[in-house]
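Let's study a protein:

===
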Amino acid sequence: MLPTVFAMALVPPKPSATLVVLDLVGIFVFAISGALVAVRKGLDVFGVLVLAGTTGLGGGFLRDVLIGATPPAALADWRYLMVPVTAGVVTFFFHPVLGRVERVVNVFDAFGLALFCVTGALKATAYGLGPVPAALMGMVTGIGGGMARDVLAGRVPVIFRGELYATPALAGAFIAVLGDRYDQPMYVVVPLAAGTCLVWRLLAMWRDWQAPMPTGPASV
């Protein structure tokens, strides 16, 4: 009996269809933003696909490794690999059109951030993490891919340039964790948590809100 109980305890929770769909949509959106950076850096098609995949999958890959969800979804489910590849190919061939609507792409990036911070937090909760670690994993899921993209592209990551990016993600992740903790239905938790992150991020873009930066000359 005991071996059976232990075996059941080791079986990882299966993600819901809703979380998988939200994950894939967020991956596609983020992958486009990564592919656009690669195009502007003058990289070839392989470089475009690498940055698309890194941006779309980086945050979720890091989250899965940290919470013990191995092998990561990006390696266990073929859809997680095909989505960023598709986004990279589309961007490679249609980047002039996408470049002209970059502000729209930035809006989609905000949607991706909102989706990822929620799915990341809920998956971490499903794997037994407490509220604070789960919320941090949600934030990591949202910002991890963009950080990896910027490092590979030789840029200062966007979260270090004063833009309000990580903070809205952390807020959305906390709301998702609290909603799950108090057994609220998914159709309430997801829109509320993702909506908080999305609205905050869009307002920051529109009003050019910045995180506090150091003032005065830098000391050496």
Observations:
- Residues 14-207 form one domain.
- The chain has a mean pLDDT of 86.
- The chain has nine helices and no strands.
